[in-house]
Write a structure and sequence with these properties.
290 residues; two-stranded antiparallel sheet; 2 domains; alpha+beta; four-stranded mixed β-sheet; single chain
């Protein structure tokens, strides 16, 4: 026997499952020189009544853990892990490691096939979403260009977004105690704090051509790069509709009225001149976003 562990190992958790293998014979007398390889392993339930009786050379001892072994003539039987160790010179840990490697290879193969099958639907969906992503991204860039240098406002805006969007004024009540008075809620403010995955130029110049090449391929290399990239595509597709909706919510007229109120009520300073013009411009712009 050259290498008893050179192939994938199949895991069995029930005796009847490995006994159903076509070449499975059951207990047999064999010359050790006729052993070919380990084709499977079994792990049975805790109770001894569930354990398998070793099929190697009349051994017959019950084992919870063991192997399915193949002879050079193709016949198979089962043997306990200690008999396997004695006859094959392998440890259960090695078989375990080999089994795990096989599982990983299979999982990668399946994932690669999935990516290949999904490439076309992903591409179609991405092309459908791209104009709306681009428009939303452009509006947010414009908004940022107009307001981010108003440091006090920009800082408050992000602080409020991180806290969930509720805008509160701190005032003194009749007894002179400081209390919080809610004056509104910034809608769609998640767009300000989510991770910046929105780069439509990158999507158009990198992701779309990659998906086009995948759609045209019959097989792909199984590598980390492919999986990382396909994860990226899936997160774009998953999050884009929410992003587009959030931008529409965020650039809503009500929000700009609230921004104006935040400055008028002293929650933040509008910064240098032109605040009113900027707010009025964006109230007009919000019609475009909606
Ligand atoms: Zn045995």
């Amino acid at each position: 026997m050259e290498n008893p562990l050179d192939d994938e190992i199949i895991l069995y958790t029930k005796i009847e499952d490995y006994e159903a293998r076509l070449a499975f014979v059951g207990p047999m007398e064999v010359e050790i020189a006729n052993l070919d390889k380990i084709v499977g392993k079994y792990e049975l339930g805790k109770q001894e009544s569930l354990w398998a009786h070793c099929g190697l050379n009349g051994c017959d001892r019950p084992h919870r853990f063991g192997y399915i072994i193949r002879m050079k003539d193709g016949c198979e039987t089962n043997c306990g892990h200690d008999c396997g160790h004695r006859e094959f010179g392998v440890n259960f840990e090695e078989v375990e490691a080999q089994y795990k490697r096989g599982e990983e290879v299979q999982a990668r193969r399946r994932a690669a096939e999935d990516v290949l099958v999904q490439a076309r639907p992903w591409l179609d969906e991405l092309i459908r979403l791209l104009p709306a992503i681009r428009a939303a991204e452009g509006l947010m860039n414009d908004f940022s260009n107009d307001f981010r240098w108003r440091i006090s406002f920009w800082g408050q805006l992000h602080k409020i977004a991180k806290a969930g969007g509720g805008v509160n004024l701190t005032v003194r009540d009749e007894d002179g105690k400081l209390v919080t008075e809610p004056i509104g809620r910034i809608h769609g403010c998640r767009v300000l704090i989510q991770r910046p995955i929105w780069n439509s130029d990158y999507i158009a110049s990198q992701v779309v051509p990659w998906l086009e090449s995948l759609s045209a391929a019959n097989a792909i290399e199984i590598d980390e790069y492919t999986f990382k990239k396909s994860d990226g595509v899936q997160s774009i597709l998953r999050e884009a509709p929410q992003f587009i909706e959030d931008v529409t919510l965020f650039l809503n007229r009500n929000n700009f009225e609230l921004f104006d109120k935040m400055c008028m009520r002293g929650i933040c300073k509008p910064g240098s001149s032109g605040w009113g013009d900027a707010i009025r411009k964006w109230m007009g712009e919000s019609q475009r976003a909606a």
